[in-house]
């Protein structure tokens, strides 16, 4: 393989967020790796999913959501997969994307999103402020096996994964467990987040572990506010689908244009709502800064009195009643009478009056004259109240910034992925094997799957020896003898099933277990860097993983793994501190 293919395939092994951005095929490649995994297929035998076939699609997805919430937590710390540097990664990716474009498009290389992300200070938010600005995290996305293995890490009682991992897990499980056709599942990546859109009913957004319905999107709750952030504040850089992908930076798209149009139309419909009195209340619930400009008029003993909307929503937080539905009277009845005033400041907006105007007028938010009339109606001395109308319009009409299909060349893969009708992981694997020579995404999926009976060893070894900072940092204070004892004493248990699926050294370090071959590779990583000498050979001989320098055996452990290549000459791979 040439160097570009080697970089792409080794990136499929590492699966870091930045690599997914550079090689967008990797996003769906991870989904396919999970579809090939027996792990998720076994979920269908769990008693939790008994009777699933009798449920409608939404109830099946809800059932799946509860299972995922119970078995996985969100994780995006800096410790799990370690750190790298901008210069190091810029040098890697220079042949594939212009550095200036990369810095404007990817959060790890300088992008800070729109005002929301700038205000929170993105490096402080992720804990990067204690490092130089050249330091960036190696956020690696995880296969289902690596997600499950978090249970072996201190502090974790369940599996875990970051947003891309959860999106890929959901996409595979939606198909395997909930029976959602792959053609109805779209993955979206923004510079700082990943989520899914499922084309069922009015649509569903899957945001980390949570489902967001269209009603939830507009309900103004804190959870929906969190779910809205990425699409409100960022452009979508990648849309990935069973037919292919489209990327905001690259000029070639493999996604089926008809499928992409359907996605764009369904997503736009999901994100837009007419302006109704309920939408006004929901918007204000989510916008504490605007609440101070509004008061609520309410009769007490037959006389109109006024209470600030801030107080109304404060009571709502601890009440089952809501301002925006039929329980309003109960909610207002919970507010202490002394909190109502006989009058209000002239600069305040009366919520009831704005609500009545919206109820009595059909307001088309796409028509400037309708918007102008609404602003005249609510004119007051509160500047925040006036700007709130613009925010209200944005609340009702989120316009997703999707990659522009008109600016790219449509180049579909030679073979389309068709997995409908597969009833097991083995059937999926067999069908995909027949496609990999004609579909790059499928080919990369086998590298993400880590099956070294079906892939060359070099991409796996390059990823292992060049992108495993956690094991190196963790062993920094250990002597060579301590490194050997550490590896010998780990449980002889790979996180990957099968005779040729292998873990990377950082997975061995993080999850404190590994087959003998996996542990020997972790030892090779640590010792060759420490010695400053890349000359090592790792071989499988008579059921042993044997690590040698020249003729000297420096480490050996029993192994049950049987990769296609049984002798790995590590000398051809540079030390981590040197250019590959």
How do the strands and helices of this protein lay out in sequence?
Elements: H1 3-14, H2 17-22, H3 25-35, H4 38-43, H5 57-71, E1 72-74, E2 83-85, H6 86-93, H7 99-105, H8 115-120, H9 122-125, E3 135-137, H10 144-149, E4 159-161, H11 163-176, E5 185-190, E6 193-198, E7 204-207, E8 210-213, H12 214-217, H13 222-233, E9 238-241, E10 244-247, E11 252-253, H14 257-270, H15 277-286, H16 288-291, E12 294-300, E13 303-308, H17 309-316, H18 328-334, E14 349-350, H19 351-360, H20 368-377, H21 383-396, E15 409-410, H22 425-433, H23 440-449, H24 457-466, H25 469-474, H26 480-489, H27 505-511, H28 516-531, E16 537-541, E17 544-549, E18 552-558, E19 567-569
Parallel strand pairs: 1-4, 11-15, 12-14
Antiparallel strand pairs: 2-3, 5-6, 5-9, 6-7, 7-8, 9-10, 12-13, 16-17, 16-19, 17-18
Helix pairs in contact: 1-23, 1-24, 3-11, 3-23, 15-19, 15-21, 26-28, 27-28
Count of distinct strands: 19
- What is the first-to-last residue Cα distance? 15 Å
| Rg value | 27 Å
Main sheet? 6 strands, antiparallel
Q: For the residues shown, what is the average pLDDT?
A: 92
Helix content percent band: 40-55%
The SS-based structural class is alpha+beta
How many domain modules? Answer: 3
Question: Main sheet: which strands, in order across?
Answer: 8-7-6-5-9-10
Number of helices: 28
Oligomer: single chain
Low-confidence stretches: 114-118
Query: What portion of residues belong to β-strands?
Result: 5-15%
Please tell me what the overall shape is. Answer: elongated
């Amino acid at each position: 393989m040439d160097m570009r293919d080697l970089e792409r395939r080794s990136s499929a092994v590492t699966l870091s967020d930045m690599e997914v951005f550079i090689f967008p095929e990797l996003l769906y490649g991870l989904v396919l790796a999970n579809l090939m995994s027996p792990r998720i297929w076994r979920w269908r035998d769990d008693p939790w999913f008994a009777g699933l076939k009798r449920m409608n699609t939404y109830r099946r997805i809800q059932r799946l959501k509860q299972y995922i919430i119970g078995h996985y937590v969100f994780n995006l710390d800096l410790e799990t997969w370690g750190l790298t540097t901008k210069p190091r990664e810029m040098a890697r990716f220079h042949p594939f994307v212009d550095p200036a474009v990369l810095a404007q498009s990817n959060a790890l290389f300088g992008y800070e999103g729109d005002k929301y992300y700038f205000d929170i200070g993105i490096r402080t938010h992720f804990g990067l402020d204690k490092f130089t600005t050249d330091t960036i995290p190696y956020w690696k996305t995880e296969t289902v096996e690596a997600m499950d293995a978090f249970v072996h890490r201190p502090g974790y009682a369940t599996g875990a994964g970051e947003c891309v991992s959860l999106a890929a897990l959901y996409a595979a499980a939606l198909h395997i467990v909930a029976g959602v056709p792959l053609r109805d599942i779209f993955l979206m990546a923004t510079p700082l987040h990943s989520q899914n859109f499922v084309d069922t009913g009015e649509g569903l957004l899957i945001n980390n572990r949570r489902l967001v319905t269209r009603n939830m999107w507009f309900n103004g709750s804190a959870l929906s506010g969190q779910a809205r952030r990425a699409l409100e504040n960022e452009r979508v850089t990648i849309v990935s689908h069973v037919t292919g992908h489209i990327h905001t930076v690259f000029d070639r798209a493999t996604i089926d244009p008809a499928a992409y149009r359907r996605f764009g139309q369904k997503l736009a419909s999901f994100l837009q709502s007419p302006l109704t009195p309920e939408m006004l209340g929901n918007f204000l619930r989510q916008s504490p800064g605007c609440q101070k400009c509004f008061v609520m008029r309410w009769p007490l003993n037959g006389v109109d009195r006024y209470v600030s909307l801030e107080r109304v929503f404060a009571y709502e937080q601890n009440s089952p009643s809501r301002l925006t539905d039929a329980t309003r009277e109960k909610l207002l009845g919970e507010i202490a009478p002394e909190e109502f005033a006989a009058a209000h400041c002239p600069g305040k907006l009366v919520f009831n009056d704005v609500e009545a105007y919206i109820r009595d007028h059909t307001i088309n938010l796409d028509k400037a004259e309708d918007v102008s009339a609404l602003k005249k109606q609510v004119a007051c001395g509160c500047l925040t109240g006036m700007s709130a109308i613009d925010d209200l319009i944005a609340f009702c009409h989120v316009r997703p910034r999707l990659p522009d299909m008109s600016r790219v060349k449509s180049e579909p893969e030679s073979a389309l992925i068709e997995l409908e009708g597969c009833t097991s992981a083995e059937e999926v694997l067999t069908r995909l094997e027949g496609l990999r020579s004609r579909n790059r995404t499928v080919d990369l999926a086998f590298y993400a799957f880590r099956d070294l009976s079906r892939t060359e060893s070099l991409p796996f070894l390059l990823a292992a020896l060049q992108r495993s900072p956690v094991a190196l940092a963790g062993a920094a204070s250990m002597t060579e003898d301590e490194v050997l004892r550490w590896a010998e004493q780990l449980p002889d248990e790979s996180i990957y099933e099968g005779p040729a699926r292998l873990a990377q050294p950082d997975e061995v370090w993080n999850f404190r277990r590994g087959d003998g071959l996996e542990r020997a590779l972790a030892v090779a990583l640590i010792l060759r860097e420490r010695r400053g000498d890349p000359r090592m050979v790792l071989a499988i001989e008579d059921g042993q993983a044997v690590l040698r320098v020249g003729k000297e055996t420096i480490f050996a452990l029993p192994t049950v793994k049987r990769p296609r290549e049984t002798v790995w000459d590590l000398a051809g791979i540079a030390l981590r501190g040197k250019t590959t």
